[in-house]
Write a structure and sequence with these properties.
The chain contains 17 helices and twelve strands. It has helices at residues 3-15, 20-39, 41-45, 48-52, 101-117, 138-152, 171-185, 206-224, 241-252, 275-284, 292-295, 326-334, 350-358, 366-369, 371-386, 392-416, 423-442; strands at residues 57-66, 72-83, 89-95, 123-129, 161-164, 233-237, 256-262, 265-268, 300-303, 314-317, 339-341, 362-364.
Length: 444
């Protein structure tokens, strides 16, 4: 490791013991920044990295709620307001039993650079709770969201911090969260959250945006390398919001998506995944992906299997962090994968990324490829400010333009710093420069 970044990594590990995902996210970004820090001493001299790795504010709070049996439950809630150099804090909320401060900090740190890449005025933040929505009734989810917002409301606002969804938080949860915010504040400030319902300030295409955006980015990356998505065999991990709409847009461009998963196992349908069935199971019934084989008996379900053992041309990890480790990456490479589009945040471990790069696999990095969701959230904020709504076609065209532009930005930065086709470095460098320059301009 270069000595120029070693001291920062040491600070992060010492100050944030045990927060391994946060350490990993910082290490990945800083490794890309070595040539930037060597060239721009002013960033080192002005403590830009020390300031970037320390969240501006982190809030931890109790979330007490009452379950359907009348029993008191207590979860832990978080909001990390990481960096506000280029706009109000912006980033999702994750409800998953694995959530702890290390996960929220890794996500918040990634969000700084991702939001910068969108070209829109949004800073970086993230939040969530160790609440498990699985197996909870509608009313339990509602009561949890109300209690969560009862504390969160004092820390957020349309010009302060604007949360949205992430794992376990979709349209239903945003509805309950907004209802409680409105009740406590006594006004209809719908710019405080994004991912809202269409009838009350939500943006058309926000639901689809992250998934569609990944495919727009991958399309541009393949085009720059004389390839296309058409007729390619695609494997997608996850079957949530991001996975479903990545699948929809990949199929639109003529790809053959053969597999999807959830945390219990994967389905393999060599005839091509029937997305309507997946949507019915996941979006309407909220059931497990294994239900798919009841409707399509030619498909198979593999309980506990590793989806990356399926041969494919393009892999789209759209579930969670560290989904592709070195072993899975090697398997994908041995089976002939030529491109990977990261839909989830940090889905590939640092070792997996190194293997992809060594084997010249085209890698669309998460903070660039999945930026379409937050970009469309920023478009939702614009519409809320104007008290106007754009049509689906208008929002989709803007999203496509933003993703195309993000690819160009990453490509250009990777070339400028002597690492052509290294879009991981390109994304980290371009995302960093805008934030670092803003921090320099605004003083310590
Ligand atoms: P959802 O909750 O809609 O879906 C998550 C999917 O990933 C489910 O299929 C879930 O399976 C699976 N999954 C979650 N955790 C695990 C785990 N520990 N092991 C295996 N599978 C798991 O979330 P999203 O689709 O919104 O988010 C997916 C990823 O995309 C996350 O990394 C998120 O941070 C990222 N992202 C989301 C954006 C958005 O706009 N929603 C924007 C940018 C990135 P199961 O049901 O079994 O838990
Ligand atoms: O990781 C992400 O970018 C998100 N979960 C979306 C954040 C947002 O504010 O829309």
């Amino acid at each position: 490791m270069s000595p120029i970044i070693e001291k920062y990594i040491e600070i992060v590990k010492k100050r944030n013991p045990g927060e391994i995902e946060f350490h990993e996210a910082v290490e990945e970004v800083l490794e890309s920044l070595v040539p930037v820090l060597e060239k721009h001493h002013e960033f080192v001299e002005n403590g830009i990295i020390e300031r970037l790795i320390e969240p501006e504010r982190q809030i931890t709070f109790a979330v007490p709620w009452i379950d359907d049996n009348g029993k008191v439950q207590v979860n832990r809630g978080f909001r990390v307001q990481f960096n506000s150099a280029i706009g109000p804090y912006k980033g999702g909320l994750r409800f998953h039993p694995s959530v702890y401060i290390g996960i929220i900090k890794f996500l918040g740190f990634e969000q700084i650079f991702k939001n910068s890449l969108t070209g829109l005025p949004i800073g970086g933040g993230k939040g969530g709770a160790d609440f498990d929505p699985k197996g909870k009734s509608e009313r339990e989810v509602m009561r949890f969201c109300q209690s969560f917002m009862t504390e969160l409301q004092r820390h957020i606002g349309p010009d302060i911090d604007v949360p949205a969804g992430d794992i376990g938080v979709g349209g239903r949860e945003i509805g309950y969260l907004f209802g409680q915010y409105k009740r406590i504040k006594g006004n209809f400030q719908n710019g405080v959250l994004t991912g809202k319902g269409i009838g009350w300030g939500g943006s058309l295409v926000r639901t689809q945006a992250t998934g569609y955006g990944i495919i727009y980015f991958v399309r541009e990356m393949l085009k720059a390398n004389n390839e296309t998505i058409k007729n390619k065999k695609v494997v997608i991990s996850g079957s949530g919001n991001v996975a479903i709409y990545a699948c929809e847009k990949a199929q639109y461009y003529g790809a053959k998506v053969v597999a999807m998963s959830d945390s219990n196992g994967y389905i393999l349908d060599e005839d091509g995944i029937k997305l309507d069935t997946v949507k019915k199971i996941k979006e309407v019934e909220r059931k497990r992906i294994k239900e798919y084989v009841k409707y399509h008996t030619n498909a198979k379900y593999v309980e506990g299997g590793c989806i990356w053992e399926i041969p494919c041309d393009i892999a789209l990890p759209c579930a969670t962090q560290n989904d592709i480790n070195a072993e899975s990456a090697q398997k994908l490479i041995d089976n002939g994968v030529f491109a990977v589009g990261e839909g989830a945040n940090m889905p590939s471990t640092i070792e997996a990324i190194k293997l992809f790069q060594k084997n010249n696999i085209l890698l669309a990095p998460a903070k660039a490829a999945n930026a379409g969701g937050v970009a469309t959230s920023a478009l939702e904020m614009s519409q809320n400010s104007m008290r106007l709504s754009w049509t689906a076609e208008e929002v989709d065209a803007k999203l496509d333009g933003i993703m195309t532009n993000i690819f160009k930005t990453c490509d250009k930065a990777s070339k400028e710093y002597g690492m052509p086709k290294n879009y991981v470095a390109g994304a980290n460098i371009a995302g960093f420069l805008k934030v670092a320059n803003a921090m320099m301009a605004q003083g310590v």
